[in-house]
Amino acid sequence: MNKKGSVILYSLMIGLTIIVVALALAPAVQESTERARNVTDGDAVGLNCSNDSISNFDKATCVATDLTLFYFVGSLLLIGGVIVGAKIIFS
Question: What residue ranges do the domains of the chain occupy?
């Protein structure tokens, strides 16, 4: 295999590894997000997002915390997809 073929294969493996890591980390990120949004329980300090009488700042924090899963996993999937797509398109 020539040098260009080796680089393409290596890049595809890196891209697929990033995608697999993103999918593997999704449940852990979701669990930590849910723990942060729930009511304070023992050592875990929560935001109590289900309460209607919290301040607007706390509501904004709840929304930002809720978007964490989408942004984290989505960005990792996007990076992996760009690497794989670039090697398929530009090879």
Answer: 3-89
